[in-house]
Design brief:
The complex is a heterodimer of chains A (114) and B (112).
Chain A: E1 5-7, E2 10-13, E3 19-24, E4 31-37, E5 43-50, E6 65-69, E7 75-79, E8 88-95, E9 104-105, E10 109-113
Chain B: E1 10-14, E2 19-24, E3 30-38, E4 45-51, E5 56-58, E6 62-67, E7 72-77, E8 86-94, E9 100-102, E10 106-111
Parallel strand pairs in B: 1-10
Antiparallel strand pairs in B: 2-7, 3-4, 3-8, 5-6, 6-7, 8-9, 8-10
The chains are: A mainly beta (114), B mainly beta (112).
Amino acid sequence: GAGVSQSPSNKVTEKGKDVELRCDPISGHTALYWYRQSLGQGLEFLIYFQGNSAPDKSGLPSDRFSAERTGGSVSTLTIQRTQQEDSAVYLCASSLLGQNYGYTFGSGTRLTVV
Amino acid sequence: GESVGLHLPTLSVQEGDNSIINCAYSNSASDYFIWYKQESGKGPQFIIDIRSNMDKRQGQRVTVLLNKTVKHLSLQIAATQPGDSAVYFCAEKRGNNNDMRFGAGTRLTVKP
């Protein structure tokens, strides 16, 4: 597509439920990133996929968070047993190469855990 | 509306004035820097980048300055317009690591 697409744009879930957030990167982009943006904060790195390499999961805050990227394209970020502190905007970005290029961001998914 | 960044540092300028947004980065090994603009309800948009072997880079109405001695980055916007109102983030890329670290952001408000 023309840009990075994320769905849903908004998600309200009950504490303890699992959620899945989806990211469709720009076609042909080999690198895909997930970031979290909490209120009043900058962007917190979560996970990075580059081609067929093992993903860099060093930013995932707990084992309740996981992500996969199927077929080198679409990515899903899963949060299990959601907590109120998981409430944030989750942003996905993709780039043509993994290094030294600007990323193109999606509009994000606003997650609210009640 | 979008409420991200209620507690961000703020900069208020008059339309037509020049704006300077500053950022301090933490890692002297960072070799690539980007400024992003984030409007309400949208993801960050790339504005301009600079590599560590440069001190200055100019774009259309924007200039980025890099001072590696004091690990400082600035974004200058000439003739600021109402459409420039947004949150601006600097980001640093650290060597061989694949993640890009973002600053907390500055909210720029342009007064007509």
